[in-house]
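Summary for the steering committee. One of the milestones for this cycle was to obtain a three-dimensional model of the protein with acetyl coenzyme *A bound, which we needed before selecting residues for the alanine scan. The sequence and ligand used are listed below.
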Amino acid sequence: MEEKNLNQIGVSFKGSGSYVPDQILTNQKISQKVDTSDEWIKSRTGISERRISSLGDNVTDMGYKAALNAIDNANWDVKTIDLIVLATSTPHDLFGSAPSIQAKLGASNAVAFDLTAACSGFLFALITASQFLKGGNFKRAVVIGADQLSSFVDWKDRRSCILFGDGAGALAIEATNEFDNFIGFDMRTDGKRGSFLNLPSKNKKDSIIDNIDFLSGSFSPIQMNGQEVYKFAVKEVPIILDKLFREKNYTSDQVDWLVLHQANQRILDSVGERLKIPREKILSNLEKYGNTSAATIPLMMDEAIRNQNIKQNDIIATSGFGAGLSWGAALIKWG
Ligand code: ACO
């Protein structure tokens, strides 16, 4: 690590990238597996199809491709990257997948680690990385959100299997001593409501040797109380965003884009309505990808940056929310 640069006061956003697997699972195909229909899924969620990982598309592979894309977009030499944070709940290696991504990238001067906060993961990782940059410890960071929830979905549970897909997105961010485009953030958790959404470990008692037991480890599929998660999201997301706007002396009409975690179109619409942000400013691509957990926000941002919806100096309000329960918000200026 280089010496601390205490002149680093801010963060600027330099590039974006994303990756989704090729396999497409449509609503029609899901309805051949469980008792549901394209009409039900579309009207209740806005989702038409999602991508599903196959061999060669685990979280390390997807995260690497998204990160490489963001680094190319930022026009960086990989050797100049100091920090890689991977937000994921589905690492390829429970000990951490970020170092494997670092190795694949050849980013030998970076330190890399995983961070888990379910669907709030990317936002929490972006905030974490920005604090390292503003603290003067690091200059360049790549923040990745990647998840492969298809491996943990109960494909017989129609209440949850319709929602999720796989993918990855990444942003390249840099410390600067001239301005700060990371305007503000807030983050919350409430473990008391954690049982609404879990991907719990499944321990089975076994014996190592006489009188010494151990718990063999694996995971149960995702368990979700959809209605409670829905109520939580439509209540807490507008509150945290509104509080952030007030703290930073912004009004919702100054926001160019609302980039929410892509869970359900009805949640996006409801949050937009409560904040009085018109529909044309609410970015959405969940129709194509479903809920890709930690990947949704950078996947959405990358698409909007590449199709030139998000432009230099646009104000973006973003919020992630999900299991934990956890939620957070950030106000940023692109560029
Ligand atoms: N197809 C057809 N019918 C269905 C399906 C389906 N896929 N799923 C549920 N139903 C039925 C139910 O059985 C119920 O029938 P009943 O009235 O006869 O009992 C009826 O449809 C209504 O069910 P609800 O659960 O009330 O449906 P709701 O309108 O709440 O929509 C949904 C369900 C889409 C899951 C919604 O609650 C939601 O989006 N919640 C948020 C979930 C979420 O975003 N989770 C991820 C958070 S991010 C993270 O951290 C991973």
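Key point for the committee: The pocket of acetyl coenzyme *A is lined by residues 36, 40-41, 44-45, 118-119, 158-159, 162-163, 197, 224, 226-227, 229-230, 263-264, 291, 293, 322-323 (CB under 6 Å).
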